[in-house]
Amino acid sequence: MKNIAVFASGNGSNFEVIAAACEHGVLPAKVVLMVCDKPQAMAVERSKKHGIESFVFSPKDYASKADYEREIVRLLDERKVDLVCLAGYMRIVSEVLLAAYQGRIINIHPSLLPAFKGAHAVEQAVAYGVKVYGITVHWVDASLDGGKIIAQRAFEYDGSDADEVHRIGQKIEHTLYIEVIDKLLKEQL
Ligand code: GAR
Question: Domain spanning 2-186 has what CATH number?
């Protein structure tokens, strides 16, 4: 049994899918912590619903990113976390977290990286008139949505409705992320 921590900033649908997969034995793991930098986020409600411990913080309450990341590393260490899954966590992680969890942090992103990095990937892709969209799961490094790619899944869409692309993409995210996590856990990381 492995221990997972999920980081989120918003809706938390990926967090919830990972939590449910652990609860139902689909993943050989337990979500031992949900980390969220937005106290009002839906992800916080979802963690309560699943009885999962959360660390909810406001970055402005800390003198620096290094300060709150040191706190996060302490919590991850205490809970013997094997894998950190960023799931809509809208912050670039710094060397503090990377050094402590090198090779154990992954992220999911709603584009075929390296195209369309950042917080508005789908909107940018739609504005370009992209015809083939996709989802990427990758290792996390100090760059924005950088790091070696682990898996990608593409889909075709010929239109201009960004909400529709989000809907299609999220369905794919919810299966792709579970598949990748399962594979990584079984490979013993
Ligand atoms: C997901 O679509 C994820 O790919 C994206 O945020 C969304 C979070 O959804 N992440 C990024 O854009 C990272 N740059 P969720 O809160 O419902 O899981």
Answer: 3.40.50.170
